[in-house]
Design goal:
- By secondary structure, this protein is of the alpha+beta class.
- The protein folds into 2 domains: 86 residues, Nuclear Transport Factor 2, Chain: A (Roll); 74 residues, Nuclear Transport Factor 2, Chain: A.
- It has 4 helices and 8 strands; from the N terminus they run ααββββααββββ.
- Strand 6 and strand 7 form a beta hairpin.
- This is PepSY domain-containing protein.
- Keywords: Signal.
- InterPro entries: PepSY.
């Protein structure tokens, strides 16, 4: 199957899913992917279509960059503009460990207290140089919520509802 056909199918599925959940989607995924790859050239290994409170429909790209780093780039579906870039780091790296004041277990408890369910994955990231834990939580209703917990303050940051995912984080 050619790449353009796959991209068009994904965009259509997201649009239909978003409309079915009373969310609107007005922007092409291709524009977001180009913007993400312009920021961090490399290989897109996964794509998630998500709904973020206050922002609406977004695309999240996991990119293995030509710089050897793993990037998570978020783009507003409506405008095609990148609004957030995070880099995955080793939890034992100095850049994460030296700044983190909250343990992963404390952050996990905070996330699960607010969004009960099963933690599917945990990522350690630097967002604008600040350490964050990111939990993918599968809730009892079947929805998957992505919850960020600030590793310095222990407060919940962004939360996003996953609508669709292609690839593997």
């Amino acid at each position: 199957m050619n790449k353009s056909l796959v991209i068009a199918a994904v965009a259509t599925l997201f649009s239909l899913s978003a409309q079915a959940n009373n969310h609107s989607h007005n922007g092409p995924m291709e524009k977001c992917m180009k913007a993400a790859l312009a920021k961090h050239p490399g290989k897109v290994v996964s794509l998630e279509a998500e709904i973020e409170k206050g922002r609406g429909a977004i695309y999240e790209f996991d990119i293995v960059g030509t710089d050897g780093k793993e990037w998570e780039v978020e783009c507003e579906a409506k405008t095609g503009k990148v609004f957030e870039e995070e880099v995955d780091v080793d939890p034992n790296s100095d850049e994460f460990k030296s700044k983190a004041k909250v343990t992963m277990e404390q952050a996990k408890k905070t996330a699960l207290d607010k969004y009960p369910g099963d933690v599917e994955s945990i990522e350690y990231e630097l967002e604008n140089g600040n350490p964050v834990y990111e939990f993918d939580i599968k809730q009892a209703n079947g929805k998957e919520i992505e919850v960020e917990v600030d590793a310095v303050t222990g407060k919940i940051g962004e939360t996003e509802e996953e609508v669709y995912e292609i690839g593997k984080d």
